[in-house]
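Hi R.,

As promised, here are both runs. First protein below:
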Amino acid sequence: SQGGYPTHVFAGVVFAYMGPIETKPVFPVGDRFEVPGLRTVPGVRSIFACNWLQVKENAVDPHHTHFLHVIPQLRGMDHFANEFGNYPEMTWSDTPGGIAYFAARRVGDNVWVRSSEVQGSSVHIINSIFESGRERKPASRPFLSFWSLPVDDTNTVNFFVSHVADDEAMPFEERRRLEIFGQNADRPYRDRQWIPGDNEAMASQGPVNVHAMEQLGSLDRGVAMYRRYVRDGIAAVQRGEQPAGVYHSEAEVPPTFANDLVIGVDDFPGDPNDHAALLSFAESLPKRYAAAPPMLALKRNS
C-alpha cells in the first residue's frame, strides 16, 4: 500500500486505489496486454494545465488528428503518417468498455478505418501514429495505453505504457521521441505555435473549458457522448451503484475496439469513393468488433 491506500504495480507504474477497500476493483489488464510478440515499456509523465475532462475528450475527437497532427508534415517534420491528412468519414459508438470513434478513409487501393477508445473515467487507448493504411490487415498491434489523473480542477497528469513489438524496425529512442512530442509544454512558445501538439490543443481551451460558451455541432458527437457517459457514471455513484468502467474480476474486463482495419477496395462493400458508403462501413464495425474483437483476431494470427 502507499499512503494507506491499496496499490497495484503494472509495467513499472504504481496505481493506488483511493476508495473503500471493500469496493476495490481489479486492475483491468485487458486484451491489449496479451498480444504475443509485444512487451510493455513504461512511458513518460505528461503534464496538462487544464481540467481532466479536456484531456479525455481529445481521445474521442478524431477531427483533431487530420488537422493538428498533419501540421508537422506540412512544416518539415515527420511525425504522424501523411495519410492521416486524407479527410475521413466518421462515426462514434458505445462499446462494452466506453466510447470509440471510427474514421474511414480511402488510401490508394485500400480503405482504412481507424478507431480509438476511451474506457471508464481514466483510460484511453490508441494505435500507431505511424500507421499509413497502406498495408492490409484485419487488426493492428496496440501502440499506447494511457491513464489520466486529475491533480486538481485545472491540472492533469497522463501516464502511459508503450506496446513495443519484438520486430519493430524503428529504434525505440526515436519512437519515444515521437510518442512524447507535443505532450508537454516543454518547448519555446514560438515553436509550440508553429508546430503544435496535443498539449496545445487541450490547454489552449483554458484551465477549465466553459461549456456554456460552446456551440457543439455534429463533429462534436464523440465529445457529447463522453460527457453523457461521465454524467451517467456520476449519477450511478450518487445512487450507490457501480459506474461503468469498474470491474471486480478479470472476467468482467471487456475487449477493446481501438484498431486499424485496412482492406482492399475490391473487398469493400460499395464504392470506396462514395462518402455514404465509407460512413456506412464505419457504422457497421462496432457490431462486427463486438462479435469478433480485433485483439482476438490479432492473437489468432500471431
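And here is the second one, sequence first, then its C-alpha cells:
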Amino acid sequence: MSISSGSSGQLYIHVGLRKTATTWMQNYLFPKIQGLNFVGKTNNNYPDWFIQWSYWDDSHFQRNVGNLSKRIDAILANNRKTLISSESFTNTAAILNLAERIKAVWPNSKIIVTVRDPIDVIISHYHHDIKEGTVFREVQEYIDTERTPFFIGKRKRIYLPDYYYTEMIENYNSLFGEKNVCVLKYEMLTMNPRQFISELSDFTGLVINENDVQFDVCLNTGESLNNLENARYENLLSSIIDVVPDVRSRIPYEAVEHYFKGNGVSPITKDWLIEILRGKAHPYY
C-alpha cells in the first residue's frame, strides 16, 4: 500500500548513477537550491530508513512500504519541494526493482537521472578500483555481460546491463510518465554547466543561482597513466603476498612491465564494448 494524497509537496528522487558527479551534486548543488528541502547522505537529516528503502529484502520491504509512505507524507506535509539523492537506487543488477520500489512508496515521484557515456563510466569505475587496490587485470576481465546477476559466485564486478540506459529510462518512463522523468548528461555539466542548471531548474520549477554553485570542484580527475601502471603491479603483489612473502623479489616490475603498459583498456576492448552497447544507450549516447 502507498499514500500520496495527504500532502501537496512534491517529491523528487535523484537516481545517483556511479561516476556522474553524484557526490558533487549532493555536496555543492542540491543544498544550494533555495526553496528545496534536500535530503542526502551528506546531510544530518538522512535517516536510516532511506537506506533501508533500497536494501531491505523484498519480503520485508513489502511489509513496510506503508510505513515508508507515511514517512514521506510527513516530510512533504509542509508543502515544500523535497529532493532525495541516493546512489542506493542504482545498486548493481537491481535498477528496475528499485524503480518499482520508488513507485510503490510514492507513485507521484519525479525522477532525475544523470547519465554519462557508458564506456567512460566503465573505465572510470575500473580506474577507481585500481586505485582502491582491488584489481590488476585488463578491464575486460572484470566485465559481466550475462543477464544472470544473482549467480553471485560467477558475477564479475562491473555488471554491463547496468549501463543499458535506453532500457533503464524506458522503465522509469513507463512507471512515472515521460514528463516526470528528467534525464541530464554528465558531459553537459562539465562542458556547459549553465545549460545543465537551466534544464534542472525547468524540471523542478526552482530558481538556481549559478553564483552559489561551486563548479570548480565538479570534475572527476581520474588517475595518471604512470600511477595506473604502478598501481596494477602493486595490486598484483598484494593479491599473493600473504602466500608468497618474497613476491617482490620473485616478480620484479621489470619482469612484468609489458603486462601493465597502458591503462588496462585496449582499443580492442573499447571496440568490444561499443559493439555490445550499440543501441542500448540510444539516444543518450
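A quick note on the second one: The radius of gyration is 21 Å. Let me know what you think.

Best,
J.
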